[in-house]
């Protein structure tokens, strides 16, 4: 299977050999992150989800999942996130919602002052 | 008139990094920013992927900006927000306006231009039809969704496949819009490969390469677009038309450096980059005025913006505190397959290696970058793949810089993809 690694702007073309749901070999990656990406991608693709939530007074606070979530869960997680309202102050790195998908937290990526 | 050693115009990532470096080298620094907060365009870029080179982490735009804003706060750097610079003179007087002080003029010993870039307008595309509501640049749509929190439309077609367009295809899809197509007139996308994968392929959004828009339909509001395939001369091929119903069209047709102030000061611009002509320390053709970031040339990675800004910041502080030295200048030129080289001028009297940034005209693989001076090849470097959407660089070591016998060119040899 041919993949493009999305872990960095190099966008390496990776060739993965899979058989019976097992990865036999990974070629074309420039660094170890590419290998890990390819191994996950052929079994269960995951992505960090970035979006935003609204504060009580209507301002937007950007958020991300602290770790990559299952790609197949993207829209279900979006639905949950869109129901969240935050109250100021919010600090970068603060947990906005625990366990938004599996045991992965949703965290703020922008500050909101009082 | 208040004096500063260094005035930085623009508080985006370039302005912030330049200010920090200038301050650390002993200069008294002021940043002037038009918006309510510093951070520049990064504030609306809430996706991740920033800072991989610099911080070895994948940060979102606001997180990347915050690292620099925090550093500015720790220092005694003056910051004026909600303040717009109206004009700049060659003798480094800055005239600005804000609500509290009205119009005022400041004098600097050195200036750093860090005004960023703006999006090319849809006027850049020549399209038949009236101009109904529902047409947005991808960047303004990004601002609506991420800063103001509302979705400009539900049924979307994106014209142009620059990174901001690709990012917005995903962003609007996540927020519940249906993105029907991304249409690109060139045979390749000008965006990063990873953005094609994670913004289009992940969501099954089709990318039509070699396609142009023929018509935008609708009187008050957009109701649809017609696209068609183009031939080698970029002429539409009859019979290949495709129609999409939509209420929104986003344009992602590139960025141009914001250089009104630069021109007014009488600084010479480069036709290829649309930014100032600079030496390797990012000094423009006016002594003591420096430029960095997207105002100088459009960067695809903010990490390079910060790196460049630090060069400009250091040089501006040096100029403000100890004046200028005599120059010994050679020019750089874009050779085969290269569309521009920056810096355009090398001053042999400035110490240090020179990182030559360049962009290629077309995608090539198994290539060799050569830096040549007359008949002589000074330097060769292999690159696996180069693409027009991605800025490349090659380092000219100090030992070669001081020995340069004349103008140099960067050329690229390789196999077309
Ligand atoms: C819409 C858009 C989306 C982008 N998305 C990405 C992305 O996803 N990833 C990426 O790596 N890069 C992206 N870029 C490129 C990004 O701009 C650069 O990586 C980086 O932000 C450039 O930094 P800068 O400081 O040069 O410019 P900017 O971030 O644009 O900052 C310039 C600052 O100068 C201020 N300013 C301008 N004129 C004046 C004036 N006269 N007086 C006072 N202040 C002034 C502006 O308000 C702004 O804050 C995007 C660019 C745009 C336009
Ligand atoms: S393999 Fe490594 S270098 Fe290549 S794209 Fe992935 S992360 Fe980047």
Structure in a nutshell:
The complex is a heterodimer of chains A (114) and B (417). Chain A has 114 residues and is α+β, with helices and mostly antiparallel strands.
Describe the structure.
The complex is a heterodimer of chains A (114) and B (417). Chain A has 2 domains: 42 residues, no CATH class; 59 residues, Roll (CPE0013-like fold). Helices cover 18% and strands 40% of the residues of chain A. Chain A has 2 helices and 10 strands. Chain A has a 5-stranded mixed beta sheet, with helices on one face. In chain A, strands 1-2-3 form a 3-stranded antiparallel beta sheet, covered by helices on one side. A two-stranded antiparallel ribbon of chain A has the order 4-7. In chain A, strand 1 and strand 2 form a beta hairpin. Chain A is elongated, with a radius of gyration of 17 Å. By secondary structure, chain B is α/β, with parallel strands linked by helices. Helix content of chain B is 22%, strand content 35%. Chain B has 9 helices and 27 strands. In chain B, strand 24 and strand 25 form a beta hairpin. In chain B, helix 1 runs parallel beside helix 3 and helix 4 crosses helix 5. In chain B, 48% of the residues are buried. At the A-B interface, strand 5, strand 6 and helix 2 of A face strand 4, helix 3, helix 4 and helix 6 of B.
- By CATH reckoning, the class of the largest domain in chain A would read Alpha Beta
Q: Any idea of the CATH topology of the largest domain in chain A? A: CPE0013-like fold
Biggest sheet layout of chain B? 7 strands, mixed
**Secondary-structure arrangement, i.e. CATH architecture of the largest domain in chain B:** 3-Layer(bba) Sandwich
Number of helices of chain B: 9
Number of strands of chain B: 27
Distance between termini of chain A? Answer: 50 Å
Q: What is the approximate shape of chain A?
A: elongated
Low-confidence stretches of chain A: none
Give Rg of chain A in angstroms. Answer: 17 Å
> Strands of the biggest beta sheet of chain A: in what spatial order?
8-5-6-10-9
Report the order of strands and helices of chain A.
EEEHEEEEHEEE
CATH homologous superfamily classification of the largest domain in chain A: CPE0013-like
The secondary-structure class of chain A comes to alpha+beta
| CATH class call of the largest domain in chain B | Alpha Beta
CATH superfamily of the largest domain in chain B: FAD/NAD(P)-binding domain
Cα-atom radius of gyration of chain B: 22 Å
């Amino acid at each position: 299977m041919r993949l493009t690694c999305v872990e960095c702007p190099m966008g390496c073309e990776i060739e993965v050999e899979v058989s019976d749901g097992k990865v036999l070999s990974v070629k074309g990656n420039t660094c170890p992150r590419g290998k890990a990406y390819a191994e996950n991608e052929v079994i269960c693709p995951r992505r960090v989800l970035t979006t935003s939530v609204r504060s009580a007074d209507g301002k937007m606070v950007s958020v991300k999942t602290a770790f990559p979530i299952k790609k197949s869960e993207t829209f279900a997680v979006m639905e949950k996130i869109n129901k969240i309202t935050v109250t100021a102050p919010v600090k970068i790195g603060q947990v906005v919602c625990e366990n938004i998908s599996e045991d992965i937290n949703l965290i703020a990526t922008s500050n909101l002052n009082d | 008139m208040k004096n500063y050693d260094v005035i930085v115009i623009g508080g985006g990532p370039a302005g912030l990094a330049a200010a920090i470096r200038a301050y650390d080298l002993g200069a008294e620094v002021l940043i002037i920013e038009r918006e309510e907060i510093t951070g520049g365009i990064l504030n609306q870029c809430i996706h991740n992927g920033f800072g991989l080179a610099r911080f070895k982490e994948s940060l979102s735009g606001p997180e990347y900006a915050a690292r620099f804003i925090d550093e500015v706060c720790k220092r005694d750097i003056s910051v004026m927000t909600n303040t717009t610079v109206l004009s700049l003179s060659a003798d480094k007087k800055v005239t600005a306006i804000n609500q509290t002080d009205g119009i005022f003029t400041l004098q600097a010993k050195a200036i750093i231009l860090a005004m960023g870039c703006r999006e090319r307008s849809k006027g850049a595309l020549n399209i038949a039809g009236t101009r109904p509501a529902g047409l947005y640049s991808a960047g303004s749509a990004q601002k609506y969704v991420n800063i103001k929190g509302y979705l400009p439309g539900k049924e979307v077609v994106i014209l142009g496949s620059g990174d901001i367009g690709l990012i917005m295809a995903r962003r609007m899809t996540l927020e519940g819009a249906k993105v029907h197509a991304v249409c690109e007139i060139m045979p390749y996308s000008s965006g990063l490969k990873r953005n094609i994968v994670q913004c289009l392929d992940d969501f099954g959004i089709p990318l039509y390469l070699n396609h142009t828009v023929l018509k935008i339909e609708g009187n008050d509001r957009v109701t649809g677009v017609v696209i068609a395939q183009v031939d080698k001369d970029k002429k539409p091929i009859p019979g290949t038309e495709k129609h999409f119903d939509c209420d929104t069209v986003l344009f992602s047709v590139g960025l141009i450096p914001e250089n009104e102030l630069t021109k007014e000061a009488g600084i010479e611009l480069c036709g290829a980059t649309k930014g100032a002509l600079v030496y390797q320390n990012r000094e423009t053709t006016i002594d003591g005025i420096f430029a960095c970031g997207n105002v100088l040339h459009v960067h695809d990675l903010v990490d390079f913006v910060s790196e460049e800004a630090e060069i400009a910041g250091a040089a501006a502080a040096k100029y403000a505190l100890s004046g200028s030295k005599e120059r010994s200048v050679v020019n750089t030129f874009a050779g085969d397959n290269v569309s521009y080289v920056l810096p355009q001028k090398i001053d042999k009297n400035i110490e240090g290696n020179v990182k030559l940034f360049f962009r290629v005209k077309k995608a090539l693989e198994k290539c060799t970058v050569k830096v040549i001076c007359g008949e002589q090849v000074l330097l060769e470097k292999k690159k696996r793949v180069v693409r027009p959407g991605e800025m490349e660089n090659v380092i000219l070591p100090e030992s070669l810089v001081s020995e340069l016998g004349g103008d140099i060119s960067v050329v690229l040899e390789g196999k077309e993809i």
